Amino acid sequence: MVSPAIVALAILTFLGKWNDYLWPSMLLTRTEVMPIMVVLPTLNTGNSQWSTPWELVMAGCVIVTLPLIIVFFIFQDQFMSSVTIGAVKE
Questions:
Q1: Do 3 and 11 form a contact (C-beta atoms < 8 A)?
Q2: 60 and 36 in contact (C-beta within 8 Å)?
Q3: How far are the Cα atoms of 7, 16, 30, 43, 44 from residue 23, in angstroms, in the given order?
Q4: What is the distance between the alpha carbons of residues 13 and 8, in angstroms, rounded to a whole number?
Q5: By CB atoms within 10 Å of each CB, which of 12, 29, 53, 61 scores lowest?
Q6: How far apart are CA 82 and CA 77, in angstroms?
Q7: DSSP code, position 46
Q8: What does the DSSP 8-state code read for residue 43?
Q9: pTM of the predicted model, to two decimals?
């Protein structure tokens, strides 16, 4: 009975840690060890002020969202059952 709530908590915790931006950007100085969410805004800086490498920015967005979609599809049943626990009336 508790497993859907634990899975929902795990998914939301994973999502919060994956999207964490402030703490790694303050602590890390080398770009080799920075997480993708910290590096993604720097992809927009091109060589010129007028050109933006959109293919690089979009590829970075796909790389960022792909693990979240995979985790959601793996735990989809448990997550949806935890959302509908309070909605069922007997």
A1: no
A2: yes
A3: 25, 12, 14, 19, 21
A4: 8
A5: 29
A6: 9
A7: -
A8: G
A9: 0.59
86 is written with which tokens? Answer: 């309070």
Q: Quick one: pLDDT at residue 59?
A: 87
Residue 76's Cβ-side half-sphere holds a number of Cα atoms within 13 Å equal to: 6
Residue type, 22: L
Q: Name the nearest CA neighbour of 75 among 9, 1, 2, 16.
A: 9
Residue 61 tokens read as 């967005």
- Mean pLDDT per segment of 10 residues, for the chain of length 90 residues? 78 82 83 80 68 80 87 79 64
CB 17, CB 3: distance < 8 Å:
no
Looking at residue 51, its amino acid is: S
7: phi then psi, degrees, rounded to nearest 5: -65, -40
